[in-house]
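Dear Dr. L.,

I hope this message finds you well. Following up on our conversation about the binding site, I have prepared a predicted three-dimensional model of the protein together with guanosine-5'-monophosphate. For your records, I am including the exact sequence and ligand specification that went into the calculation, followed by the structure tokens. Please feel free to forward this to your student if that is useful.
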Amino acid sequence: MAYDDNNIFARILRGEIPAKPVYEDEYVLAINDINPQAPTHILVMPKGKYVSFDDFSAKASDAEITAFMRATGKIARDAGVDATGYRLIFNHGPDSHQEVPHLHVHILGGRPMGFLIARTAA
Ligand code: 5GP
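The resulting structure of the complex is given below.
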């Protein structure tokens, strides 16, 4: 899948749509989810143009991957959810219900997260 330069996170990264960063560095931007599903619901995204985890894991540089992983852990700690626990979700592609085609990981915490996924037919 080709990267769509007009996806909403690309526009946020370009500053066309205002967003208050929770965290930012050379490689990474994190923002609060507009429709939070838990008391803490943060989206962490690389600044590079990657459609999803599949794209990122195959093509990103070691520096980008390291920065993304380190930042995600730090953001969760800074949000105070490391002690009680949190869930990380990456959605890739239609079966996952990925809505925004720019890689992001959801950090969800601040309450028990329940079952891993909805218990529908396997
Ligand atoms: P996905 O389904 O792609 O893994 O998750 C996309 C997430 O982005 C959803 O949880 C949705 O609420 C969030 N989202 C969509 N548009 C915006 C936006 O303009 N700003 C912010 N902060 N979050 C958004």
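In brief: The chain has a mean pLDDT of 96.

With kind regards,
A. P.
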